[in-house]
Known about the structure:
single chain; 18 helices; disordered N terminus; 6-stranded parallel β-sheet; alpha+beta; binds CIS-heme D hydroxychlorin gamma-spirolactone 17R, 18S; 20 strands; disordered C terminus; 10-stranded antiparallel β-sheet
Amino acid sequence: MAKAKSGSGAPTDQTGPAGEPHQHSAVPLTTNQGTPIADDQNTLRAGARGPSLIEDFHFLEKMTHFDHERIPERVVHARGSAAHGTFVAYKSAAKYTRAAFLQNGAETPVFARFSTVAGGAGSVDTPRDVRGFAVKFYTQEGVFDLVGNNIPVFFIQDAIKFPDFVHSVKMEPDVGYPQNASAHDTFWDFVSLTPEAQHMVMWAMSDRAIPRSLRMMEGFGIHTFRLLDAQGASTLIKWHWRPVLGTQSTTWDEAVKIAGADQDFHRRDLHDAIAAGAFPAWELFIQPIPAADVESLSYDILDATKLVPEEEYPLIAVGKMTLNRWPDNFFAETEQVAFHPGHLVPGIDVTNDPLLQGRLFSYTDTQLKRLGGPNFHELEINRPRCPMRNFQRDGMARMTVDKGRTNYEANSLEPNGPRETPNGYTSFAEPMVGTKLRQRSETFADHHSQARMFYRSQTPVEQQHIANAFTFELSKVSSKAVRKRQLGHLMIIDKELAATVADQLGMTGEAEIITPSREPIDMEPSPALSILLNAKPTLEGRKVGILIADGCDGALVAKLRTAIVKAGAVVQLVAPKVGGAVAANGEKIEADHMVSGGPSVLFDACAIITGDDGCDALVANPAAVQWAADAFNHCKVLGVVAAAQPLLDKAAVKLDDGVVELSGKGVDMFVATAKKGRIWGREDAQTPPPAKKPAKAPAKKSR
Ligand code: HDE
């Protein structure tokens, strides 16, 4: 057999008749015990065609380790992507809290993990689902975890219902589907029987549940927390994260198609932004709620199915998080990170919210299962970055080598060992009196007012999306009784919404009559809850796709690319073949995708630059026709040249303000129009929106 050359240029030799040459380097390959390995290609056997030998300790060790590579995935939030970064406090928040990381310019390393909730670790990134938004702050006073979601309320009020809720949304246990989708019987059965879920269901059916990017999501701590100042005075607050790039969502049809085009759409997007140095950032806000007001509110601040409108209680910015480093190793960091709402630092305390109270148990319990024992705090990603000493010892996989004989306190044998400190964590001295009982507070009983307020705070476009989402989801429910029951709740929330959904389902007049436990009130709309009313006119952090074909104007492609990049967006070229297209001047322009591999759903705005011959080829290519049709139907701004007209005709693209001719001043016009976002009016032709008053303009003070 001829001696093959190693691709790496490393010296090689042969391993026998069936083998490739060994590759050697200056670094010896070893077993886990450090024994150098001479042959990692063949098991030890009795004769070249004989059975393998059990004495092959090298093979046994390698295979055993492989067999144990997986740990249990998270029971919820299994699918996640994470990054390292820094949190910088603005001016001192000492008025509210003594937490050191929230004082004058303090810089704190952070690790943030974003997740879907229902699907498994290998599921796609863009289902309709709530997103987790968990941040670990490695502060000088210990680890603080802010374990939130991208929606400010939750499905249930009491932790004891969490296993039921999660079972209902996960794949149905007999058939094992659907994966990562709430559009099935068990979910709608549970939520329609659980009125407290109705507010969160409105959010889950809104565009909040199909975010465009992890970089463009808000985050919320959901529960009311308590801050304590240096004197122990307390302030009740909610936590809010706001993305610097603005909040943005996909459309439902896009989300579905992205799932096929790029399963890792959100993970790749976060990775690519960080790799390109376009570091995603969020501002952190607190929303103080004066204790004196609590009793007079129409909802209970301990009820996690309610939000506190920011028009009534404005937000105060306390700092900014910037994510600037992708993890080195997915398993060691993103998979093994262990969040816990009870990882608190001095100056931050919990409240009696019965959902939060239950979480304080669940997260340690789940880490014991997933990470195998009580020493998960020693894993690099979970390790506090400040000194940590106590008398806890031993346990599974203990890594610290504790020295000395004092593993207890009080002790006199090590006077300089760890001791309590007056500056240590103290809980708020809240007076407690109560009768032991299992009872939901009367103040938790209004389940529909905030659902109505949320709906009425949306623009007509967003309201139509909500109606469409209800229609789609309920159309996947085979039990008619469940559909009728959910329609009954919509009747209480908003009669027009209920009528639209019933009509779209073909079930007009079939809603079950449901008597709410408390008649809803009409709260003031909260414009801050609408994505579109608060959209940022920018292309920053967005992605523009340019479909090119033979005969295109190379100078125009270059000019457009420069203008888009200047506006802060990324450009990708798409062509019939990934090798590229030949421009009119004979120059070959390389593409990033072939057209079927780079559908327009991957982009925020699109352009088509082709010559006449190239356009003929595009018209004959179904993927190219779909590219143009989807870009138009998803309401995207579309830059075009005259030669692209046959493709536009084939794709039924109608000329409107969002279809911009690129010649002359067209490039600047394209960028200016694309910054404004989508041309939502095109949806009117697809589904007529309900006649609704738009919500008022956002209150400036709290944005
Ligand atoms: Fe969680 N949740 N949760 N949750 N949760 C978990 O902990 C739980 C709830 C949230 O990226 C688990 O480490 C209970 C609300 C996020 O690693 C588990 C209840 C909110 C993540 C758990 C809730 C969240 C989790 C599974 C009701 C928003 C992912 C794996 C009482 C404020 C963190 C794990 C990550 C993960 C329990 C409700 C957010 C089982 C019992 C409300 C972002 O412990």
